[in-house]
Design goal:
By secondary structure, the protein is an alpha/beta fold. The chain contains 10 helices and 5 strands.
Length: 257
């Protein structure tokens, strides 16, 4: 703890070692321990920003990003990061703590802030891709019913803190879309308090393709396992499907990140 003596720190470390099977590492100081935690999240943020930027480039080149990453992943030392929305209470926040402190001590961080700019822009980018697909498929945008599946900041958890799915929703609403949101993991009251959104019951969408046909567009925003259980077919369906996290196979979607 802050201000503790080396002897106290060793005793605390021994206590944690006795109850943490994975073991512990005794940092040299509380500052070093906090710095280690911050840079771990900043590093992940930068790695995701890199593959997000690749997704932007490959889309312009007409290349499927996931196919490229899967091919690159056959090399043993390739890091398996995937593009997506970066939210939550750690990865999307800690880099700002580090950059604030860096500037406070006289250093302007470039890589960390660049990664943050890319990741913070992905919600608007996804929404623009969705709208362009709607136009391409002759779907009217203004007043169109859009279903967004997923509101939490990551899959298979109820945590909605700093979820960047809201960026996609707000941007689609700015184009005049009428957006419904469903998430079997998220707490509806919490979503209402935090984002002013009313979730539709998940049971309403679990009927599969017939319900999807009520929407001009469906956006898979979070890769919940439960979404794999949805019955969905493209046969005779005019619904535009955009898949941020590759929930569905490529053949079932009109676009993916």
């Amino acid at each position: 703890t802050s201000g503790s003596t080396p002897e106290t720190a060793r005793k605390v470390d021994a206590l944690y070692k006795s109850i943490v099977p994975a073991g512990t590492h005794l940092a040299g100081s509380i500052k070093e321990a906090e710095a280690a935690k911050v840079i771990e999240n900043a590093q992940r943020d930068i790695n995701i920003a890199f593959v997000n930027e690749l997704a932007l480039i490959f889309h312009k080149m007409g290349i499927d990003t996931l196919n490229v990453l899967e091919a690159a992943g056959t090399k043993w030392n390739f890091l398996p990061f995937r593009p997506g929305l970066v939210g939550g209470h750690c990865i999307g926040v800690d880099p700002y703590y580090l950059t604030w402190k860096a500037e406070a001590v006289g250093h302007h961080p470039e890589i960390i802030l660049s990664g943050r700019r890319i990741n913070d822009s992905m919600g608007a980018y996804v929404a623009s891709r969705v709208v362009k697909l709607m136009i391409k498929h002759k779907q009217p945008v203004d007043g169109a019913r859009v279903l967004v599946l997923g509101m939490t900041f990551k899959e298979n958890c109820p945590d909605i803190r700093n979820s960047r799915v809201i960026d996609v929703i707000r941007e689609l609403q700015s184009f005049g879309c009428r957006v419904d949101v469903a998430d079997p993991w998220a707490d509806a009251d919490e979503v209402r308090r935090e984002y002013g959104l009313t979730l539709i019951p998940y049971e309403r969408i679990n009927s599969g393709k017939r319900l999807f046909d009520q929407y001009a567009t469906v956006v898979f925003a979070v890769k919940h396992d439960m979404f794999n259980e949805l019955s969905f077919s493209r046969d005779a369906s005019k619904t535009v499907v955009y898949d941020i996290k590759s929930v569905l196979s490529k053949e079932l979607v009109d676009g993916r990140l």
